[in-house]
Specification:
GO terms for molecular function: phosphatidylglycerophosphatase activity. This is Phosphatidylglycerophosphatase A. Pfam families: PgpA. InterPro entries: PgpA-like_sf, Put_PGPase, YutG/PgpA. It is a single chain. This protein has about 160 residues and is mostly helical. It has one domain: PgpA-like (YutG-like), CATH 1.10.3760. The chain contains 9 helices and no strands. Helix 6 packs parallel to helix 9. It is globular and about 50 Å long.
């Protein structure tokens, strides 16, 4: 793929996040919540920098595009049963949404798993909004956003350890 093609994929992934109600600042806020107790001097600027670096990864962009497309099809009722119902209800035993999210978490190593597990369970900030069925179908997106925050947190932890 050409550089222009890569730029289009990243731009589209970022635009789709925004169109679905997710601001990058929302993700940076999740990173801050995950890491501030370990790095008391942590700034939102540093959290944003790490979120942007995660979003620059092709694997992450692909997960965003795939997950959001499936959420939109589910929201529009365009999937065949029984998948339509499974995605509409965000069934706990479905798990494919978490597998997509784990592909993002894997980009920055195993520390991301613990960050992701915690944030997926607690659902702080934007994740609470995305989990409210009144705000649309976000079966994949809530996990993807949590995974981006977990990966950015992992990247931050790796960077901080390198400095120490």
């Amino acid at each position: 793929m050409s550089e222009k093609g890569r730029d289009i994929v990243e731009k589209t992934a970022r635009e789709w996040l925004t169109k679905r109600g997710v601001k990058l600042e929302d993700i940076a806020d999740l990173v801050y919540q995950l890491q501030v107790k370990y790095y008391p001097d942590l700034t939102m600027d540093l959290c944003m920098k790490n979120v942007n670096r995660v979003l620059a990864k092709r694997e992450v962009q692909n997960a965003i595009l795939t997950g959001i497309q499936l959420d939109k099809l589910g929201e529009e009722g365009k999937l065949e049963q029984p998948l339509q119902g499974i995605i509409e209800r965000d069934e706990g035993l479905y798990g494919v949404d978490e597998i997509v999210a784990l592909s993002i978490v894997n980009v920055y190593g195993s520390i991301g798993f613990t960050n992701y597990g915690y944030i997926d369970k607690e659902k702080p900030g934007i994740l609470k909004f995305l989990n409210d069925k009144n705000n649309g179908c976000h079966t994949f997106l809530d996990d993807i956003v949590g995974a981006i925050a977990a990966a950015a947190s992992s990247r931050l932890a790796h960077s901080a350890e390198a400095v120490e």
